[in-house]
Specification:
2 domains, mainly alpha
């Protein structure tokens, strides 16, 4: 009981600190220099890719270890996500206005590994007795997990292509870069909701807070679409909501830690409860995408009408 109460207090302090930070940071930001805006955005996408890769690395390491690495292919996401993490950390400090061929190759490999992993997980579901059923969707290989690796590779690959664009009016996919990136991150946010909704449905939404990750990100996605399709201007409310979404991911780790603490034996029985409890590495995926979306929004606001 004391241990659970300590977790509750820590979550409360985190919520208070996040609220204060959001109030401080919700205002208009100083725009980046037009000559460096697209490079700063590319670096933000590199960092977001690294955070997603870290989430994939820790989650897949735990889940595939629980599966005893029965298939040698289960080592693949560990290797690829580690490389994607290193590429993201390197790119986050790189100010060069040119694509890095090694990072670009790693990102493309990560995206392909994410697609392949989705195929393996789909096969894992269909080969079980009962095939497509709620039980298998709940307890077989998580169908949405490899998509985080795909998103990590996609964010990184886009960041490398953005570096190749001219500082004056950079473009991606035939449209202004800020607009394209806002739409991309909007789609990424929507893509993360399915797995969360499935797992929280399995948990019967026993805590009302479990509705937050299936309510807040869709609103952020809709606001991003509006920012992408509207004329470039200051979108202060979208920025504030994206900061809420960023905080959601990190605070979610605290709530998942509370879920582990509430299991029989709590953290004293961590070797079992970490595997059976809510996955600690999962919530930061929202933070990674929201941080990338903030970079896309800043770039969109500097574009000409």
């Amino acid at each position: 009981m004391t241990q659970t109460r300590s977790i509750d207090i820590a979550i409360g302090c985190g919520l208070a600190a996040a609220t204060f930070a959001l109030l401080r940071l919700g205002g208009r930001e100083t725009p980046a220099s037009p000559a460096r805006a697209h490079i700063d955005t590319a670096r933000t996408f590199n960092r977001s890719s690294a955070l997603l890769a870290l989430s994939v690395l820790t989650d897949s390491a735990m889940e595939h270890y629980r599966g005893s690495f029965d298939n040698p292919a289960m080592y693949t996401p560990l290797a690829v996500s580690t490389l994607s993490l290193l590429a993201g950390l390197h790119g986050g400090t790189d100010r060069e206005p040119a694509r890095h061929p090694v990072r670009d190759s790693i990102y493309l490999s990560a995206a392909l590994a994410g697609v392949a992993g989705t195929g393996f997980h789909l096969y894992n579901i269909t080969k079980r007795p009962g095939g497509w059923s709620w039980h298998n969707l709940f307890y077989a290989a998580p169908i949405g997990a490899p998509m985080a690796l795909l998103l990590s590779g996609a964010l990184g690959a886009v960041s490398e292509r953005l570096r190749d664009e001219p500082a004056h009016e950079p473009r991606l996919f035939g449209m202004p870069a800020g607009q394209a990136l806002a739409l991309l991150t909007s789609a990424g946010l929507v893509g993360t909701i399915g797995e969360v909704a499935l797992m929280h449905f399995r948990g019967s939404f026993q805590n009302p807070v479990m509705y937050a990750p299936i309510v807040i990100p869709p609103v952020a996605s809709a606001l991003l679409i509006n920012a992408a399709l509207a004329e470039p201007r200051d979108h202060w409310f979208t920025r504030l909501w994206l900061r809420v979404t960023t905080a959601l991911g990190f605070i979610g780790v605290g709530f998942h830690a509370r879920g582990v603490a509430r299991a029989r034996g709590g953290w004293r029985n961590w070797s079992q409860n970490l595997f059976n409890g809510p996955p600690l590495p999962a919530p930061p995926s929202f933070s990674a995408l929201a941080l990338a979306a903030l970079g896309a929004l800043r770039l969109r606001e500097t574009e000409k009408k």
